[in-house]
Amino acid sequence: MSLRINDIAPDFTADTTQGPVQFHDWIGNGWAVLFSHPKNFTPVCTTELGTMAGLEGEFKKRGVKIIGISVDPVESHAKWKNDIRTATGFDVEYPLIGDKDLKVAKLYDMLPAGAGESSEGRTPADNATVRSVFVIGPDKKIKLILTYPMTTGRNFNEILRAIDSIQLTAKHQVATPANWNQGDDVIITAAVSNEDAIARFGSFDTVLPYLRKTKQPSA
Fold first, then answer.
1. Long-range CB contacts (within 8 A, 24+) of 21-27
2. Are 23 and 12 in contact (CB under 8 A)?
3. Furthest C-alpha separation in the chain
4. Which residues are catalytic?
5. Using one digit for the tens of pLDDT, what is the confidence trace for 144-181?
6. Are 53 and 88 in contact, with CB atoms under 8 Å apart?
7. For 59-94, what is each residue's pLDDT tens digit?
8. pTM for this one?
9. Contact at 8 Å (CB) between 64 and 163?
10. 34, 50, 214, 207: which is closest to 136 by C-alpha?
11. Which domains does the chain have, with CATH numbers?
């Protein structure tokens, strides 16, 4: 099954470092980030998991839960967490899913259906495509998908920036331009007339007939 933005994030039951979870129930009425890893004890992923632990408070400010997944058993995750602390100085306190049967990796189209049913004997290269980030909204729909090569560490500040944009544009009829950050001007969507734009935003600049910019709306 190929997943796209606005698809319902597939639900699943899995074991984690914090016990079993039913994914949709675990998300609840908030936002979630699911980020995946091809294998435990891999160098890039070790830095990523620690970086995410250091940013957990930033995700919480935005009402976002974070959950990791790696194609290895939960028992192995516990040992890996010690290495992550040594390498990065951060404790991983968010749940890590054990996907030893490859069920979630295949469910989220990160591995083909014919990949087998066990993580045993598989190398990181075998699981190279299990390097995706999924941002999921309160409606359980996928809002963003990013997939990285194994040699390129993920930029979690960019994921936070994208979440800021997604949450802002879900509330107001605006879009965010290239390289937008919190507090920058935003784009008024085509669905808003000039008259309505004045009523909503007070004023705006017309750069092009189809490109109107205004100050970022307050929360």
1. 21/67, 21/95, 21/97, 24/140, 26/65, 26/67, 26/95, 27/65, 27/136, 27/138, 27/140
2. yes
3. 63
4. 45
5. 999 999 999 999 999 999 999 999 999 999 999 999 99
6. yes
7. 999 999 999 999 999 999 999 999 999 999 999 999
8. 0.96
9. yes
10. 34
11. 13-152 (3.40.30.10), 172-214 (3.30.1020.10)
